[in-house]
Specification:
With 119 residues, this protein is an all-beta fold. 0% of the residues lie in helices and 54% in strands. β4 and β5 form a beta hairpin.
Length: 119
């Protein structure tokens, strides 16, 4: 399973760091990513990172957010700086997890953590 933490209420211009830890039967983890969903909108990719560390970001967060991962801890992070009210959403992590060696990877989602940017 995936469990996120680190969400909360922050003023515009502030920072938050989200964490998502994977647990259970895990042989390996491929791509990991963060998505967000604002009320009345579809879920969108915020940032993703491959097992090798290559990253990509939504245009709206480039230069403000940084995704990273610690493979030994099976954890992915999202450092969010210069937060704006439009960043308000539920943030969920996703990971492609190999349960066994040689088998296919399955996608897993966390339940999400609320981020609210407001003065």
């Amino acid at each position: 399973q995936l469990v996120e933490s680190g969400g909360g209420l922050v003023q515009p211009g502030g920072s938050l760091r989200l964490s998502c830890i994977a647990s259970g039967i895990i042989f390996g983890i491929n791509d990991m990513g963060w998505y967000h969903q604002a009320p009345g909108k579809q879920r969108e990719l915020v940032a993703a990172i491959t097992s090798g560390g290559s990253t990509n970001y939504a245009d709206s967060v480039k230069g403000r957010f940084t995704i990273s991962r610690d493979n030994a801890k099976k954890t992915v992070y999202l450092q969010m700086n210069s937060l704006k009210p439009e960043d308000t959403a539920v943030y969920s992590c996703k990971a492609a997890i190999y349960p066994t060696a040689g088998g296919p990877a399955d996608d897993y989602w966390g339940h999400g953590t609320q981020v609210t940017v407001s003065s």
